[in-house]
Amino acid sequence: KIKMLPKSIYAITIMAGSAMTLSFPSSSLPKTSATLVMLDRDGVINQDVGSPGVLQPNQFQLTPGAATAIGNLKRSGYSVVVITNQSCVGKGLLSMPELEEIHNKMTRLLMDQDDDSVIDRIYFCTSSSDDDPRKKPNPGMIIEACDHMGVDPADSIFVGDTLTDMQAAKSGGVRRRFLVQTGYGFGLMGNKAACVPPRMILEEKTPTDASSSSSSSSQRLNSVKPFLYAANLADAVGSILGKQDLK
After folding, report:
1. For the segment 1-43, what is each residue's pLDDT rounded down to a tens digit?
2. Omega of the bond prior to 139 within 30 degrees of 0, cis?
3. Which residues of 223-233 are buried (b: 16+ CB within 10 A; e: fewer)?
């Protein structure tokens, strides 16, 4: 049986220098009254494969419960977009058609598991330069997404797994930020497991006897607090919607 994809996922690709945005027909966009949830891709929606990232569709595998989590957000009236760095394109490791094929794989996997798990837009930056204003930890894509979707960043939500995700979200004015244990989140949190439901991580004072390396790491993490630490996207969405184990 062939599963037809809804018109909302067919896209026009717009190029702005090295930065790319996957945009959907305006008729398919959600109402501006809907709350916006922005998701990092690798380590949040799909299993992180390490550097240099997913280069082939067969490497793309969803994290447990990701499709149902996105479907629950959509059924609850939320808009969902992806915010992802894809510098592998700028480095010549991946072509634009190959990246599109990987995103098509993501779409198919999500919808195979939950018909409602449709991503409204995919924002990605192909630049390998840290000076690019759209490349995380810079907030360009977040500001762009909020502008496109007609949402104040302060009213939006971001879910990521890295320090750069949290830095971009905080710089972009996103108040409700989730760090997930999947991907790099576990290591970033000192190999401490997340609680269920997610708990708020508050700024802490660095011990005076801490080593210079641990002190620097602690300061970087403190700079993006407070945030909620969740086991995975499914648990983060459970917290967003006010209950666990939705389906």
Report:
1. 333 344 333 333 333 334 444 443 333 333 334 489 999 999 9
2. no
3. ebeebbbbbbb
- Edge to edge, the sheet with strand 36-39 lists 12-16, 19-23, 121-125, 79-85, 36-39, 157-160, 176-180, 227-230, 199-201
Number of Cβ atoms within 10 Å of the Cβ of 143: 17
- Whole-model pTM? 0.84
Token pair in block for residue 123: 């924002």
Structure tokens that stand for 163 in this block: 């320090």
| 146 alpha-carbon distance from chain centroid | 14
In this structure, how many other beta carbons lie within 10 angstroms of the beta carbon of residue 95? 11
In whole angstroms, give the CA distance from residue 122 to residue 67.
16
Which residue, 31, 29, 41, is CA-closest to 88?
41
- The per-residue pLDDT of the chain, averaged, comes to 85
pLDDT digits (tens, 9 = 90+) for 88-108: 999 999 999 999 999 999 999
Catalytic center residues = 40, 42
Give yes or no for residue 232 having a pLDDT over 60.
yes
- Cα–Cα dist 191/105, whole Å: 31
